[in-house]
Amino acid sequence: MRTVSQAFYKSVPVLAGYVVLGTGFGILMQNAGYGVLWTAAMSIFIFAGSMQYVGVGLLAGGASVITTVITTIMVNARHLFYSISMVDQYKNTGKYKPYLIFALTDETYSLLCGGDVPEGADPDLYRFLVSLFNQCYWVTGSILGSLLGAVLPFSTTGIEFSMTALFIAAFTEQWLTTKDHIPALTGLLSTLVCLVLFGRENFLIPAMLLITLVLTLLRSREEGAV
């Protein structure tokens, strides 16, 4: 019970954000003609935050499988960076590992990337529960949004920006709570360089590749120095 309460306390900052953002996703799904079962299924089995928002447009527009795959890779490529820094924490987590990998969202990463575990808590169970609580918040918000969208009129104009706002908040929180700003600066500078070189329509994939390369090289250098 101690580990459960500590994990819940750690996840509380994500609670309000995920319920609100999940509600927005549920409303978008309902307005696109997909009911509560589709909404719940996406949040349970996909649980990709921003990609779920993008997925609403893909579903409504009848996008091809190839388009969907490419778009998913572009939107979720940032998870490559998360995985690099979480390898040590997740490599010996046993039965929890599959779910921990599946549930590693931006906000879960921001809560767990520091590696700190409360005194007396089971580290693997603690990380598992933080991830599970966060997904529960998202699923709850999604279902709530779908139900509200079915009975109340909503204008969905601009609702997609809520995910951008959340990314900015997560970036700011991580900057303020960590002393090592090299990963953040790497992301900002690499993105800026690729934006200038490739333009706003084509910069995303090159930026992701460049960030991955730089962070991988930095990690290899640190491991070699140990």
Folded structure, characterized:
The chain has a domain at 2-155. It is 77% helix and 0% strand. The model has no long low-confidence stretch (mean pLDDT 84). The chain contains eleven helices and no strands. It is mainly alpha-helical. The chain is globular, with a radius of gyration of 18 Å. The protein starts with a helix and ends with a helix.
What is the secondary structure topology, with strand pairs?
Blueprint: H1 2-31, H2 36-45, H3 50-61, H4 65-76, H5 79-90, H6 97-102, H7 106-112, H8 123-151, H9 161-177, H10 182-198, H11 204-225
Throw out a few tags for this protein.
single chain, 226 residues, mainly alpha
How much helix is in the residues? over 70%
Number of helices: 11
> What pattern of helices and strands is seen along the backbone?
HHHHHHHHHHH
Radius of gyration: 18 Å
Global structural class: mainly alpha
Largest sheet: none
Low-pLDDT residue intervals, each spanning 5 or more residues: none
Strand percent estimate: under 5%
Number of strands: 0
Mean pLDDT value: 84
The separation of the N and C termini measures: 37 Å
What spatial form do the alpha-carbon principal axes imply?
Answer: globular
